[in-house]
């Protein structure tokens, strides 16, 4: 990203809930790096925040301890001329009116926002500090339909939009199974008197499933409705799209929605013609007659999938990823024995609690038993073969005061919603159960407890683990430098499994079990720079729903393997010798496969695969790390031969070395230890291992690979002791590394500098060496 210019316009947005705001600025340059109590940092600039509270109308201010920073996020807004306004949005809990939030850049100028709204149970305010820079648009247009241009044409011609790309016809409804009844396509104005996109805002209670078997989609929408920043991405400029009864001539019957399609935000334009039978919406609808956001969102998603019928059966995790770009993880609760193992149950609860608190979305599912029908209600009130959205995750304490009694009974609770809008759990802690008598009416209200048959209910986490079989966790991975939470470095790569009869060109070799072809898959290399780093990896295959009508809509089985490789590898793997297989993802026929793993410092090769060889498909690979990973695809099999190769020479031999350990090293400090590392030299190349502290017996497990031009020159392996001022040489071993050398692990005596006959010194190293004159053998 280009460096921020020295001076940029500083824009301040209004508070949430339409609170009045005053904003002034005399200079917007933000050169300083200075944290105050609520500072947030960035590679580009840092904004320091000072929170004040006005006392009884007096002009003086004092710090307010009641203001709490609860969320921050980056934003980008496309401006005319191709520029983009990008900045940080900071959200605070403000307990009462009269609270002032000041942005004080280090240098000239100041900007002040004052909240003067009414006191509410929970007031939130948002401040955006923006700077502009040139950036290409990140949104692509589905079927190249331009919303503003189409809307302008309709208004000028005084007609309502009819979408030629998704017409009001049978082909948009189904490809195989027609709905029962006479379908009529009607506009919202034909279904009610005062149609609106939203009535009294947006809520997870707005949606009901309808006759299509897409409870997974409705569950995902219910999750989406909980997060304002997320649904506003999916429904851009929602106020501009809303019906305005004062200016009916500006309504053109056209809407737009955005979905994260295979790594790219995609805008889908639709008309407002909706399928009905006997004047009633067939599919997803609101519980309020004149609210239509859910029905229109479903239509846009059906257009993307090819038809409404293509949405019959699916995964809530897939829809959430399409809504948000989240990283989806699917967990089999039965296979993981979460109902039996309390320790694993508690780990999962803490994970769900963290995901929910940080804006993630969660859904769950009850798989039907073999031979039993889907969506059948059990005695517990739960429905098998049915998706539910998780709307809250809470850790409660029962006692004199809920949540504040540290000696009280502790409860782990989840709140769920049935997309049908009824049929609730009837066990412990259900709406009318005896357990709620332990809790006061006020406390029940704070939890959002209702006794209506509205489809939303509470369960203990233990009961949840016993009754549900699968959970989909969708993490909104934080990549913002402005966040108070952990910031992840992200890298995304598009790739494909492509078939070719030439082994070196084939890229669909199947899983690890296919030993002859496994390494013919795409290969991606990345580095772990820290001593240890937690990495998140997501592999996603292309959405195949549009292929359902030709019988090819099923997901293929995919997964990936991770190998720790040579620290200096830059060409494709051709044979597994010294490399360590450190991780294997699940292999499953879901659109997304996820793995979370702690990796040690070093270089790794990640190999995404289909389960069976010879299957072609596209995929995207996403890697999240604490520091930049330099993820890149390995495409070359060996060094390229150029015109310079005639002058400087071309490699004749490939040598692979693994330094396992060093023992018996000379003591270097008073405690009898040393801080050794190894340095491997080959021609003009050097590779150094990490330092092993306080050890005369050090385990290195360092791997290196060299493409050698001068095969008569030995490879030198030196052992050094790390010191503050000057490192000390401890000894070395020389390796001829010829193809005829034994490939078994061997122990070599350390010697002083010089030839192979140099004087012996204390210590020896254990190594394994592979050499070949075929540059694509290793």
UniProtKB/TrEMBL annotation:
Polar residues compositional bias, start-end: 97-115
GO cellular component, one term: cytoplasm
PANTHER family: CALPAIN (PTHR10183), CALPAIN-6 (PTHR10183:SF381)
One Gene Ontology MF term: calcium-dependent cysteine-type endopeptidase activity
Transmembrane intervals: none
Catalytic site positions: 215, 386, 418
The protein's name in its UniProt record: Uncharacterized protein
Boundaries of every C2 domain copy: 635-752
Keyword Hydrolase: yes
The organism of origin for this protein: Callipepla squamata (Scaled quail)
Domain of life, per lineage: Eukaryota
Calpain catalytic domain mapped to chain residues: 160-477
Family designation: Belongs to the peptidase C2 family.
One GO BP annotation of this record: proteolysis
Pfam families documented for this protein: C2 (PF00168), Calpain_III (PF01067), Peptidase_C2 (PF00648)
Region (Disordered): 97-120
């Amino acid at each position: 990203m280009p460096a921020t210019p020295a001076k940029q316009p500083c824009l301040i947005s209004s508070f949430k809930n339409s609170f009045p705001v005053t904003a002034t600025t005399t200079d917007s340059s933000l050169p300083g790096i200075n944290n105050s109590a609520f500072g947030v940092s960035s590679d580009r600039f840092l904004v320091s925040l000072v929170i004040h509270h006005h006392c009884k109308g007096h002009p003086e201010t004092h710090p307010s301890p009641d203001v709490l920073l609860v969320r921050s996020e980056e934003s980008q807004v496309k401006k005319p001329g191709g520029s983009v306004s990008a900045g940080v949005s900071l959200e605070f809990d403000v307990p009462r009116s009269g609270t002032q939030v000041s942005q004080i850049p280090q240098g000239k100028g100041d900007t002040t926002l004052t909240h003067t709204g009414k006191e509410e149970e929970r007031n939130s305010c948002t401040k955006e500090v923006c700077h502009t820079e040139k950036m290409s648009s990140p949104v692509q247009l589905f079927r190249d339909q331009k919303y503003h241009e189409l809307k302008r044409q309709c208004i000028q011609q005084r007609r309502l939009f009819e979408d030629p790309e998704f017409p009001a016809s049978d082909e948009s409804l189904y490809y195989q199974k027609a709905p029962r009844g006479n379908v009529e396509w009607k506009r919202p104005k034909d279904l009610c008197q005062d149609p609106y996109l939203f009535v009294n805002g947006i809520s997870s209670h707005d949606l009901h499933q309808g006759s299509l078997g897409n409870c997974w989609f409705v569950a995902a929408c219910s999750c989406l409705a909980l997060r304002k920043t997320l649904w506003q991405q999916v429904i851009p400029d929602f106020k501009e799209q809303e019906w305005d009864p004062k200016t009916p001539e500006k309504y053109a019957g056209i809407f737009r929605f955005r979905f994260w399609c295979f790594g790219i935000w995609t805008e889908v334009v639709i008309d407002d013609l909706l399928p009905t039978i006997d004047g009633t919406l067939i599919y997803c609808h609101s519980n309020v007659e004149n609210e239509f956001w859910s029905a229109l969102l479903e239509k846009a998603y059906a257009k993307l999938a090819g038809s409404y019928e293509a949405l019959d059966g699916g995964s809530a995790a897939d829809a959430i990823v399409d809504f948000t770009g989240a990283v989806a993880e699917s967990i089999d609760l039965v296979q993981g024995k979460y109902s039996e193992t309390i320790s694993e149950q508690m780990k999962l609860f803490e994970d769900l609690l963290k995901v929910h608190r940080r804006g993630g979305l969660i859904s769950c599912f009850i798989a039907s038993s073999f031979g039993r029908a889907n969506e059948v209600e059990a005695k517990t009130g739960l429905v098998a073969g049915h998706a539910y959205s998780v709307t809250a995750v809470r850790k409660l304490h029962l006692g004199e005061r809920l949540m504040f009694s540290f000696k009280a009974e502790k409860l782990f609770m989840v709140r769920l919603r049935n997309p049908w809008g009824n049929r609730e759990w009837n066990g412990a802690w259900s709406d009318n159960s005896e357990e709620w008598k332990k809790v006061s009416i006020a406390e029940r209200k704070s939890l959002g407890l209702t006794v209506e048959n509205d489809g939303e209910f509470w369960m203990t986490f233990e009961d949840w683990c016993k009754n549900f079989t699968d959970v989909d966790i969708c993490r909104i991975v934080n990549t913002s430098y402005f966040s108070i939470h952990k910031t992840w470095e992200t890298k995304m790569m598009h790739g494909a499994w492509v078939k070719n009869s030439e082994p070196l060109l084939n890229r669909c070799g199947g899983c690890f079990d296919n030993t002859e072809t496994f390494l013919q898959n795409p290969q991606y290399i990345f580095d772990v720079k820290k001593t240890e780093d937690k990495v998140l990896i997501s592999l996603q295959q292309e959405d195949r729903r549009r292929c359902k009508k030709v019988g090819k809509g099923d997901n293929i089985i995919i997964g990936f393997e991770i190998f720790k490789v040579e620290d200096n590898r830059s060409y494709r793997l051709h044979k597994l010798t010294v490399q360590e297989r450190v991780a294997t993802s699940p292999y499953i026929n879901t659109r997304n496969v996820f793995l979370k793993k702690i990796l040690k410092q070093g270089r790794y090769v990640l190999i995404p695969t289909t389960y069976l060889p010879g299957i072609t498909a596209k995929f995207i690979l996403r890697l999240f790390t604490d520091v930049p990973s330099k993820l890149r695809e390995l495409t070359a099999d060996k060094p390229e031969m150029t015109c310079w190769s005639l002058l400087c020479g071309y490699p004749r031999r490939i040598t692979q070395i693994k330094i396992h350990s060093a023992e018996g090293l000379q003591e270097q400090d008073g405690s009898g230890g040393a801080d050794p590392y190894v340095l491997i030299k080959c021609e003009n190349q050097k590779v150094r291992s990490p330092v092993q502290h306080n050890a005369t017996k050090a385990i290195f497990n360092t791997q290196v690979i060299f493409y050698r031009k001068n095969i008569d020159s030995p490879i030198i392996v030196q052992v050094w002791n790390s010191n503050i001022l000057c490192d000390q040489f401890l000894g070395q071993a020389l390796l001829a590394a010829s193809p005829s050398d034994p490939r078994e692990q061997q122990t070599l005596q350390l010697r002083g500098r010089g030839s192979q006959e140099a004087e012996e010194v204390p210590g020896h190293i254990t190594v394994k060496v592979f050499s070949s004159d075929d540059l694509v053998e290793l």
